[in-house]
Description:
By secondary structure, this protein is α/β, with parallel strands linked by helices. It has helices at about 25-35, 45-50, 55-65, 75-90, 100-110, 125-130, 155-165, 180-190, 200-205, 220-235, and strands at about 10-15, 20, 95, 115-120, 140-145, 170-175, 190-195, 215.
Amino acid sequence: MQPAVNHVQAAAFDLDGTLCDSIPDLAAAANAVRRALGLAELPQHTVESYVGDGLAALVHRTLTADFDGQAEEKQWEQGYTLFVRHYAEHIADATRPYPGVAAGLELLKSLGIPLAVVTNKSETLAVKLLRALGLADHFSLIVGGDTLSEKKPAPAPLLYAAETLGVPPQNMLMVGDSRNDILAARAAGCPAVGVSYGYGDMAALSRDPATRPDLVVSSLPEIYEHLRPQREQDAEAV
């Protein structure tokens, strides 16, 4: 195991693209907004490219069909209201955990490691989705993009999670699929674990020293296999 992920005492997880594939329901909400406003629907892969920076940014991108677009204020407010209403009502119609997620979380909890979710999704929607997927009880803490004044890639959400869980940031993993996840981990001093199956291009991120994770896994049970020997060794040393 790489030294950067030694002596882990807690783990934080991104939500969309790491714990679950939520793109079908996010795309459905985005296109419900566009239909209501007389706009043409967007392909699902386009909406996928807009995800990761929080709901406010997603609505701007949905309305303008432009990653860097900014909708007019009144249109954005209308679109935001429509999006939240539709998405909240259909938040888990097609969203499912990735294979191995539930088993991996159970395995990690068996090591006595407290778990958190740190997402740029709003806290209310994150809690609602995790409950709908039957995953909420695995986590001691859920930090949303609106829980604090800053969200990923700022370090504040991870520093808050580490403090709340009572562990040093350097002993808390950040597990995610995106550039924001890895940059937040770097800024907070947390070891970064990338997942190869999410929305981000982990191969490309791994080629850039600024976004190279300390470890890449293809499923959450792999994290357990990396941590189990260390946790057993730590227990024997006590």
